Structures are given as C-alpha cells and as structure tokens.
Amino acid sequence: SQSAAGAGGAGNSNGGVTNGGKTTLTNRLIKALPNCCVVHQDDFFKPQDQIEVGEDGFKQWDVLDSLDMEAMVSTVRAWIENPVKFARSHGVNVTPGSREPSSQDIHVLVIEGFLLYNYKPLVELFDLRYYLAVPYDECKRRRSTRSYTVPDPPGLFDGHVWPMYLKHRKEMEDGGRSWKEHFYSRASAGKTKRAPADRKASCKACL
Ligand SMILES: Nc1ncnc2c1ncn2[C@@H]1O[C@H](COP(=O)(O)OP(=O)(O)O)[C@@H](O)[C@H]1O
Ligand SMILES: NC(=O)c1ccc[n+]([C@@H]2O[C@H](COP(=O)(O)O)[C@@H](O)[C@H]2O)c1
C-alpha cells in the first residue's frame, strides 16, 4: 500500500489462539523492525458492563460483539492514510537520522489479536496474514497462569474460550477457501474460471 505521506507501507497481521504467543512475537518484531507500529485488538474490548451474558452464564468475551471493531478498523485506516503521522502520534521513532520522511522509507504496521480474520472490513486491509496456534492442553495451561483485567471465572476456558476459538477458526478456514480459489484463478488467468466478482475488492492484485 502507498501512504498519503508518500512512504511505502505494509500491514502485517498476527492473529491466532489466546496465549498462542502473539504479543511475544509482536514485541520482538517491534524491536527488530524500524518504523514499526502496532495495533492490539485487546485495546478494543468494550467496557465490562456492555459484555453480554450467554445462556451458559458466562460473559461472552470471545465474540466479535465484545469488541469495537469499527474503531479498530478506523485506527488501522489512520495508519494506512499516513504512517508517519501515526508513528509520531504513537511515540514510535521515525527513521532515525532523517528529518524528512523519504519515499523510500518502509513503514510496517503489525496488527495483533485473537479474532482478526472473522471481520471482513479488517481482513481486507491486511497485506500479510499469520496465524499462531497451540494445542488445547498447552493453551489451557498458559491461560491458567494469565491474569486479565477481568479474571477468568472457573470453567470459562472449557465453557466459552475454547469452543469459541474452534468456532471462529472453522469460520475462518471456510472463508479462506474462497480466498485461495481467488488467488489461484488470478495466477492462471485465462486457463481457469475467474473467482466471483465480489471477491475482487479483497485482492490487492485486482485493485
Ligand atoms: N514460543 C513460546 N514458547 C513457549 N511459551 C511461549 C512462547 N511464546 C509465548 N509464550 C508464553 O505464552 C504465554 C502467552 O504469551 P502471549 O505472547 O502473551 O500470548 P497471546 O498474546 O497470544 O495471548 C506467556 O506466558 C508467554 O511467555
Ligand atoms: N483485555 C480485556 O479486557 C479482557 C477481559 C476479559 C477477557 N479477556 C480475554 O482476552 C482474550 C484475548 O486476548 P489474548 O489473545 O491476548 O489472550 C480473550 O480470550 C478474552 O477472553 C480480555
């Protein structure tokens, strides 16, 4: 993507299961990459009193409705519009040594979260997508040592967190099939049937 500031940019998304290591990886990327900003999905949780209680008796934290996804998309769009301005307003150093941003500067945004790939307006903004997963036992073990702003009530992991993870992962994989078909038909244009028109806007190669 090309930003309003004239600098090249790329939005890299780092999604996956709770306690899969997303934040750890993101922190390492920030250290290693110059001009790197980050957006954490956890910062977009709605206040506790707006989180619905399900028939199972648990507050439904692990669903899209518990997050202000519109605000998250606006934040990512603000970076796309002007990564230099975004970096400066978020305390990220912009290319040490150079006073004026150069058109050669590469800016990177890492978007990190547990529910990134089930909200189409957000998915459309990513250049690269990564998914971190860990097996059930390891995930449960790590989660049991974690303290969130609202602590997990007993039974939340098996009653809500893991079932929602499986549900969303399945949704993502089912949706992903259309993406793969689309890119396949781009690569072999003329030889295979084109993907449906409604997928086109999601593909950078089609813009
Ligand atoms: N590669 C790894 N191997 C083992 N443990 C890890 C690894 N990455 C992260 N962890 C541990 O897993 C827990 C969750 O990591 P975190 O990065 O906060 O996950 P997430 O952001 O996906 O919820 C932390 O205790 C962290 O130290
Ligand atoms: N940050 C918060 O306000 C808050 C509150 C309650 C639960 N959570 C949990 O955060 C998890 C997602 O974050 P991680 O991917 O960092 O674990 C969800 O599974 C959710 O249950 C977060």
From TrEMBL:
Pathway: Cofactor biosynthesis; NAD(+) biosynthesis
Catalytic activity: beta-nicotinamide D-riboside + ATP = beta-nicotinamide D-ribonucleotide + ADP + H(+); beta-D-ribosylnicotinate + ATP = nicotinate beta-D-ribonucleotide + ADP + H(+)
Alphabetized SUPFAM superfamilies for the sequence: P-loop containing nucleoside triphosphate hydrolases
Example of a GO MF term: metal ion binding
GO cellular component, one term: cytosol
UniProt-listed GO biological process terms: NAD+ metabolic process; pyridine nucleotide biosynthetic process
Comp. bias (Gly residues): 1-19
Region listing for Disordered, in residue ranges: 1-20
UniProt entry keywords in alphabetical sequence: ATP-binding, Kinase, Magnesium, Metal-binding, Nucleotide-binding, Pyridine nucleotide biosynthesis, Transferase
Pfam families: AAA_18
Family (UniProt): Belongs to the uridine kinase family. NRK subfamily.
Name of the protein in its database record: Nicotinamide riboside kinase 2
Species classification: Eukaryota, Metazoa, Chordata, Craniata, Vertebrata
